[in-house]
Amino acid sequence: MDKADKLAEFRKVIAEQRTPLPRVPEDEWEHVVVHADEIPWYSPGKETNPSRLGPVLQLPVKSFEIFLQEIEAGSASDMQRHHHESVHYVMSGTGYSEIGGRTYHWSTGDFVYTPPMVWHRHYNSSQEEPVRMFLVENSKLLENLGLNYRESEGSIDYRELQEKLKKKNAEIQI
Length: 174
Description:
Blueprint: H1 3-17, E1 52-55, E2 65-71, E3 79-82, E4 86-92, E5 94-99, E6 102-107, E7 111-114, E8 120-124, E9 131-137, H2 139-144, E10 150-154, H3 158-173
Antiparallel strand pairs: 1-2, 2-9, 3-10, 4-7, 4-9, 5-6, 5-8
C-alpha cells in the first residue's frame, strides 16, 4: 500500500468515527424567522442586569443564544463574567466596555468580543440616546454540556470590583 492509499484509508477511518451533526427536525422549522414584535423584552430591574434584554427564544438553535440588548442613555450593563464567549454587534449608539480592566471604545457598526471568565461591563456614553446591541453567545452549547456559569457583581465598575474582590479574599484568609 503506497502513501496515498494509506492516507485515504486513514481518512476513511476518521470519517467513520465522526459524530453526525445534529439536525433540526423539520417540525421545528416553523420558527426559522422571528419577527421583531415577537421578541419578549425584559425590563431593567427584573434581573441583575440593569439593561433591557430581548432574548430570541423562538429559534431552534442548539449551540448558541441570540439577544437584543438596549442600554439606556447614561447607563450601563452589570459587571459580569461567564464561561461562554459572547460577541456584541453595536446596532446604534456609542459607548465603551471595561473588559478585564481595560477600556475599549465602540460605536455603531463595531463588534465587541468578551472572552470566557473575564469580568466586563458595557457603558452607554450618550446622555440622550440608548445603545442597541445584537448579542450572540455560545452559552446554549455550554449549558447543554453542563458547563455554563454566570456571575454578576451588579452595578459596579472595574476598580470597585477589584476592591470588593480584595476584601473578599482578605476575609477568606482570616
